[in-house]
Amino acid sequence: MAKSYRQGRLGGEIKKIISQLLLREIKDPALKDRMLSISAVEVTNDNSYATVYISVLGMGKDAGDEEKEKIVEGFSRAKGLIKREIGRCMSIRHVPELIFKIDSSMEYGAHMSGIIDSLGIENYKAEDSVPQKDTDKELDEILKDL
Questions:
Q1: Residue 39 sits in which domain range?
Q2: Is the pTM here over 0.70, yes or no?
Q3: Domains in the chain: how many in total?
Q4: In which element (H, E) is residue 102 found?
Protein backbone atom coordinates (compact mmCIF):
# COMPACT_ATOMS: atom_id res chain seq x y z
CA MET A 1 0.00 0.00 0.00
CA ALA A 2 1.29 3.47 -0.86
CA LYS A 3 2.46 5.77 1.89
CA SER A 4 0.15 8.64 2.60
CA TYR A 5 1.04 12.30 2.64
CA ARG A 6 0.84 12.27 6.45
CA GLN A 7 3.48 9.53 6.82
CA GLY A 8 5.77 11.43 4.45
CA ARG A 9 5.42 14.66 6.41
CA LEU A 10 5.82 12.89 9.75
CA GLY A 11 8.95 11.10 8.49
CA GLY A 12 10.39 14.37 7.18
CA GLU A 13 9.84 16.14 10.49
CA ILE A 14 11.35 13.27 12.47
CA LYS A 15 14.36 13.32 10.15
CA LYS A 16 14.80 17.06 10.68
CA ILE A 17 14.54 16.77 14.48
CA ILE A 18 17.00 13.85 14.71
CA SER A 19 19.47 15.66 12.44
CA GLN A 20 19.34 18.74 14.65
CA LEU A 21 19.81 16.62 17.78
CA LEU A 22 22.76 14.87 16.19
CA LEU A 23 24.43 18.22 15.60
CA ARG A 24 23.69 19.83 18.95
CA GLU A 25 22.57 17.56 21.77
CA ILE A 26 23.62 13.94 21.38
CA LYS A 27 26.93 13.48 23.18
CA ASP A 28 27.37 9.70 22.79
CA PRO A 29 31.03 8.97 21.88
CA ALA A 30 29.95 6.30 19.37
CA LEU A 31 28.07 9.00 17.45
CA LYS A 32 30.06 12.16 18.12
CA ASP A 33 33.36 11.07 16.52
CA ARG A 34 31.81 10.06 13.19
CA MET A 35 30.28 11.88 10.26
CA LEU A 36 26.67 10.69 10.25
CA SER A 37 23.62 11.67 8.29
CA ILE A 38 19.98 10.67 8.56
CA SER A 39 19.20 9.60 5.01
CA ALA A 40 15.53 8.68 5.41
CA VAL A 41 12.76 8.01 7.89
CA GLU A 42 9.95 5.65 6.96
CA VAL A 43 6.81 5.67 9.10
CA THR A 44 4.36 2.75 9.10
CA ASN A 45 0.76 3.28 8.00
CA ASP A 46 -0.51 3.29 11.59
CA ASN A 47 2.26 5.69 12.72
CA SER A 48 3.40 3.27 15.43
CA TYR A 49 6.91 2.64 14.09
CA ALA A 50 9.47 4.83 12.35
CA THR A 51 12.53 3.28 10.73
CA VAL A 52 15.45 5.71 10.75
CA TYR A 53 18.12 5.05 8.11
CA ILE A 54 21.60 6.27 9.06
CA SER A 55 24.31 6.98 6.49
CA VAL A 56 27.86 6.71 7.76
CA LEU A 57 30.08 8.99 5.70
CA GLY A 58 33.82 8.54 5.36
CA MET A 59 33.84 5.02 6.72
CA GLY A 60 34.87 3.33 3.47
CA LYS A 61 34.78 -0.33 2.64
CA ASP A 62 36.96 -1.20 5.63
CA ALA A 63 34.10 -0.61 8.05
CA GLY A 64 33.11 -3.82 9.70
CA ASP A 65 29.83 -4.87 11.15
CA GLU A 66 31.18 -4.07 14.62
CA GLU A 67 31.55 -0.37 13.78
CA LYS A 68 28.06 -0.21 12.32
CA GLU A 69 26.65 -2.04 15.31
CA LYS A 70 28.27 0.49 17.67
CA ILE A 71 26.57 3.32 15.78
CA VAL A 72 23.16 1.62 15.98
CA GLU A 73 23.72 0.97 19.70
CA GLY A 74 24.62 4.65 20.21
CA PHE A 75 21.36 5.72 18.61
CA SER A 76 19.49 3.15 20.69
CA ARG A 77 20.99 4.63 23.86
CA ALA A 78 19.83 8.09 22.76
CA LYS A 79 16.35 6.85 21.82
CA GLY A 80 14.72 8.33 24.95
CA LEU A 81 16.14 11.80 24.29
CA ILE A 82 15.18 11.61 20.63
CA LYS A 83 11.58 10.51 21.35
CA ARG A 84 11.20 13.22 24.01
CA GLU A 85 12.36 15.91 21.57
CA ILE A 86 10.08 14.58 18.82
CA GLY A 87 7.15 14.73 21.24
CA ARG A 88 8.10 18.21 22.39
CA CYS A 89 8.57 19.65 18.88
CA MET A 90 5.59 17.99 17.21
CA SER A 91 2.02 18.03 18.41
CA ILE A 92 1.21 14.34 18.01
CA ARG A 93 -0.44 12.10 20.59
CA HIS A 94 1.82 9.14 20.12
CA VAL A 95 5.50 9.32 19.18
CA PRO A 96 6.37 6.37 16.93
CA GLU A 97 8.71 3.70 18.24
CA LEU A 98 12.09 4.30 16.60
CA ILE A 99 14.01 1.57 14.79
CA PHE A 100 17.54 2.45 13.72
CA LYS A 101 19.19 0.84 10.68
CA ILE A 102 22.37 1.54 8.76
CA ASP A 103 21.65 2.75 5.21
CA SER A 104 23.80 0.71 2.85
CA SER A 105 22.61 2.39 -0.34
CA MET A 106 25.87 4.34 -0.74
CA GLU A 107 27.91 1.14 -0.49
CA TYR A 108 25.59 -0.56 -2.96
CA GLY A 109 25.91 2.41 -5.35
CA ALA A 110 29.71 2.25 -5.14
CA HIS A 111 29.57 -1.50 -5.78
CA MET A 112 27.37 -1.02 -8.85
CA SER A 113 29.62 1.78 -10.09
CA GLY A 114 32.59 -0.58 -9.78
CA ILE A 115 30.78 -3.22 -11.80
CA ILE A 116 29.93 -0.72 -14.51
CA ASP A 117 33.53 0.53 -14.58
CA SER A 118 34.80 -3.05 -14.89
CA LEU A 119 32.82 -3.49 -18.12
CA GLY A 120 35.41 -1.34 -19.87
CA ILE A 121 33.04 1.18 -21.39
CA GLU A 122 35.09 4.35 -21.23
CA ASN A 123 33.86 6.72 -23.91
CA TYR A 124 30.13 6.23 -23.89
CA LYS A 125 28.25 9.02 -25.64
CA ALA A 126 24.52 9.55 -25.52
CA GLU A 127 22.73 9.58 -28.87
CA ASP A 128 21.42 13.09 -28.32
CA SER A 129 24.86 14.57 -27.74
CA VAL A 130 26.44 13.21 -30.95
CA PRO A 131 25.30 14.59 -34.29
CA GLN A 132 23.95 11.94 -36.65
CA LYS A 133 26.64 12.55 -39.31
CA ASP A 134 29.46 11.84 -36.83
CA THR A 135 27.80 8.60 -35.84
CA ASP A 136 27.54 7.50 -39.47
CA LYS A 137 31.25 8.26 -40.01
CA GLU A 138 32.22 6.21 -36.96
CA LEU A 139 30.12 3.28 -38.15
CA ASP A 140 31.68 3.47 -41.62
CA GLU A 141 35.17 3.39 -40.10
CA ILE A 142 34.29 0.37 -37.98
CA LEU A 143 32.82 -1.47 -40.94
CA LYS A 144 35.96 -0.79 -43.02
CA ASP A 145 38.11 -2.42 -40.32
CA LEU A 146 36.02 -5.59 -40.50
A1: 1-105
A2: yes
A3: 1
A4: strand 97-102
